[in-house]
Design goal:
The chain is mainly alpha-helical. It contains one helix and no strands. Its main location: membrane.
């Protein structure tokens, strides 16, 4: 820990960790919101599309 650049390296790793964790959290929250929106749209339409069927 006598390296003069230790503070810079540690700060870089900490910032990278915070950014990546934020992106993971943002993606997870957006996925939940999109699933809710899709469920609401499906409930409003009153019908469901077949998973393997042809799409118009």
């Amino acid at each position: 820990m006598t390296d003069p650049h230790f503070g810079y390296i540690a700060a870089s790793y900490a910032i990278a960790f915070v950014v990546i964790a934020g992106l993971i959290l943002w993606t997870a929250l957006d996925q939940r919101a999109q699933r809710r929106a899709l469920a609401e749209l499906e409930a409003r339409s009153g019908r469901r599309r077949a998973a393997d069927g042809p799409r118009p």
